[in-house]
Amino acid sequence: MDFDLEMTDELLATTRAVRKRLDLERPVPREIIAECLELAVQAPTASNRQTWRWVIVDDADLRGQIAELYRAGHADALRDGKAAAAAAGDAQTARVYDGAMWLSDNLHKVPVLALPCLLGRPADNAPPAALSALYGSIFQSVWSFQLALRARGLGSTFTTIHLFQEQKVADLLGIPGDILQVALLPVAYTRGTDFKRAARPPASEITHWNGW
Fold this sequence. Notes:
Blueprint: H1 5-13, H2 30-40, E1 52-57, H3 60-71, H4 75-87, H5 91-106, E2 112-119, H6 128-151, E3 154-156, H7 166-173, E4 179-181, E5 185-189
Antiparallel strand pairs: 1-2, 2-4, 2-5, 3-5
């Protein structure tokens, strides 16, 4: 199969963390989420164990309750982070914090919340190899999910703030104790699709060949 490299590279380079440009008014059909999940589970997984699990929330009442838990206890940290970035002259990071604050305030309005999870929890003092295998089994699936969304005109962002309230979210959604929540992805169509490459250092500046 010959891939269209220009289009593939554009997809990879412009799949942004979307917050303020999420369309809070347009419904997201379940069929679209299901399509993207079918692609997500094609991602590699450690030892072929296929331990990923997904919880998708589109019920308005549940989304509202999750949003309340999400907002609990982190608003000050976001404001402090934005102020510190602005004081340091880091405009891009300040915008990220501003977007995070907006998302926190509007999370209950996002049509779909996707929670990627894993079957099994890390043991106390688990070695780095075990943790890498554990999280490596879901992160690749999450990125495939986000790319599939982008290709269909939807956006998302990888958030972990709700994990400060993980047990309360688990209780709300009936998530069993042996299931590890990894993130929360707000999902919606985007207002416009003209996303651009982000400001990043050249790969050559952070790459080491044959040793550090």
